[in-house]
# Entry
Amino acid sequence: MDLYSAATTFMRWLDEQVLFCARGDLLDNLEVEPNGRFWLGRLAPEESVSESALGERGERLEPCAIGARLRTDGVFPRSFTVTVRARVWIFNGEVWKKLPPLQDPFDIYIEDAQPSERSFGREALTNSLTTICGAEGLSCEVRIELRDDADGTPELTVLLVNTSPSEHQGFRDTNLYECSIEIAGLEPIPFILESLPDSFRYDRRVLAYGINCGVELTEHGSLQTVDAVAVEKDRPSYWSVSEPLPNLTFSGLSENPIPHLKQLVAAHAMWGVHAWGEKIGARAQEETWSPSMLAEAECAAREFGVESERMTEGIRLLESDPRLLKAFKLMNRALSHAAGGRYDSWRPFQVGFLLANLASVAREDNSANVADVVWFATGGGKTETYLGLLVTAALHDRSRGKLTGITAWSRFPLRMLSLQQTQRFADALAGAEIVRRQGGLPGDPFSVGFLVGQGGTPNSLKEEAGSGEPDVDDDEMPGRYRVLLTCPFCRSEDIAMAFDRRLWRLEHRCLNDACAWPERALPFFIIDDEIYRFLPTVIVGTLDKAATIAMQTGMRGLVGPPFGLCSQEGHGHTYAPRSNRPTGCLVPGCRGKRQPLLMNNDLYAPSFRLQDELHLLKDSLGAVDSHYESLLDHLEERISGRKPKILASSATLTGYDRQIQLLYQREGRVFPVPGPSFDEGFWTNSGDKVARRYVAVAPRGVTIEYAVDRTVTEVQRIVRALDKDPAAVCKAAGIDPSFAADLLSLYGVNVVYGNTIRDLEAVARSLETQIDVEGLVNTASLTGKTDFEEVRVILGRLQNPEEDLDARLHVVTASSMMSHGVDIDRLNIMVMLGIPLGAAEFIQTTARVGRAWPGVVYVMHKIARERDASVFRCFDKFVLQGDRFVEPIPITRRSRKVLEKTVAGLFLARVLHIHEAQSALALTTVSNLRRYFSGAGIGEEAELSEMIAMLKFDSGLDDALRNDLQRWLERFFSSLNNPGGTFRFPWELSPTGRPMRSLRDVEEEAPVLGY
# Structure
């Protein structure tokens, strides 16, 4: 048994112990009432449920019946066997004792298929309970409901019902416990899950539906009710074809990559001939596909062929372009550094994506009109995939004369991206800088910018700080803004923060004397003004910041060339002059002169805009962003003469093509093309190792907070026992004690995930008093209220736990901020409070556990809610085919309300970045803007034409939007040209007020997420 096998065995055993604890399987005596202790497996009396004012919701919260609903073949008369199991607890005056089990099998005979409700076994079951209890009073029965479904097929519902009275003088508790039924002798006809459309890739069949429980097929072919529905997903296998795996190691591809790449592409094509040809045809006949399913499969087969052609083209480019080949080789050396010894090879799909998109680096095709989406299961390596492409592009840029400036701007839809994601970018660009120097490529050092702005890092540092602003004279100020977890060059955690007054820079400094980075400040920028001054190679930031392009002159550097360079060494690029910075230098008080740029203007524009977690760009955020994406394209085309390539990553595919069209006005294309079935493809197949075990739980008769407390208590009790007596725990779990220390690390932390802050606050209060284990339970919180420095400390403690178990973190409560970018191998147990509103959030969130080792996710259903109840009844499909439950992205770019929000920013951004560059004036006042527009002959008609073209409001459906634009411009120019007006600044002329400060100005204000 290796460690992974031991971890799998331990994880399953631990889950079994949690279930036993919830039902009481291992207990025979209690000092407390069982109905206040056990929250699974119990059935309340039917009488008490019928008296509840909650109706059907009350039945789900405290059920009196469990069973199964199935379809039959319609052949009657027929018989089958039902086995009823239950336990009773009685109070003897001192303690509660569990009585011997009720386990009665009996035959059920049904004569005809007439719709009816019938009762069976009441007398026999009641007599058995009387015998077990030694007194009369408790009773139960099996109820059979027979009816026809919509197509006339008989449906059979088999229920175990607790028919005991709600109160009885002989029994203090009339609940039944550890209840289940087993149905033998029936061969169900599967249901077809109507909530999912037909697809050749997926199986929609459901053998039976549980009623207030789950249903499993036993090894003997009978149906068995279960209290918790467990579904396991396997860890993917990334190479499962018969051909040998090519050498895709970083070292192999950095030396002589072409033969290995050709081997990969040939295997891909050969697999496609069989899987998308012969095999798909055989399946179509065997499974009697509908014409629409066959057409869908044929379309997917053609997409697979295009995928193969794109990779072949990538190899051709490498063979014909020495500069591209050199960049590709150096990139592999750079990513080897970034991997830091954790891995030494690419996964095949990652190399496939690189090959398929090399044309966007070489610029030989029209790929800027296509947005490419890398789609892969969360944890598969999407970030590293597009980092490989960006590093290739950066290295290629240097060889073609781009000596400085931005290669890519990567945006995240959250208020602030994960520190771990940022660290990955920094590690990759550090590797690129090392090989750039070794390879003799010219230009500035490769660098990373962290563009999140106020609330995360400062927008600027002033000579005289205002109230609440960072103070450069405060010695403790720099330390509050540390972003890097480790030095990206040497992995040392010994990083100091300092402010260099001479260069006006807030610096991360590595204190390791052996670090490969020779300079004092690491090439990492976190102040907005510094990013504008130094134009880092790759900018990582939040989507929100795009709105500042209407206000910040420095944002010009993200779409085109700055105005010049400052003559003062270390001050960087300059922009439009202002009264407080007459030369356009962003360093306070600078009196240097503007000097010419060092390279052609058309080289400055970013080659790529990246969008991480594309599926989160929806609703009002997506609608607003669609206008600003058009603005960014418009400015870059007007200033630099080209459009950037759009790359995106997503964990889901539902509606991506429409979303891409609306957001970016481009055709969408996904890589890799999904395989012929949900668990089979060239790039991945289901492997033989468990990745995650999902356990659906519907607590009975208790609050969800209580169920969470008991689950966490049991897990922590086992963890502490593993620490104190590893031999005994390992023996019970059936594993070798030599694995105890590793298992203690892998399963010692519980994540409690809540969809709302209110849920988490309730859980946090409960955890403080209700976790009954030996020793302290150390907790931490990762929510929007957690400040930046605390998040960094928490992540550090999770990645590098203290030696002593008592000093470690044991429970982390987390909100949606944790659902993206957190990659910690020690997080392998999660308790989720309710089903999130979107299936995408469920997929992303649960993927935070089990990243490298088998994990378990307890999904505590808020079973009174219709959505949770619906998911519970088909939980296995929800997990295994989760991407099919992802709702189509709700987004539109044709919203007049949204245009009302965005129009001021769109117009003023044109003034700032296009008109001011062509003017000899600073267009910051109404008088200067009037003078410029008048002298240049620019009026509302010209601007209207530009804005219509920018937003592509050129169809018959856009009449109202065009009219709104026209009216806005008419009012703006009317106010502008009014000589008696009292307006001073151009934004004051806007009929709709100030431009948006953030793309989230359409939403309710909320704290910045600091992680």
Observations:
- Residues 257-286 form the longest helix (30 residues).
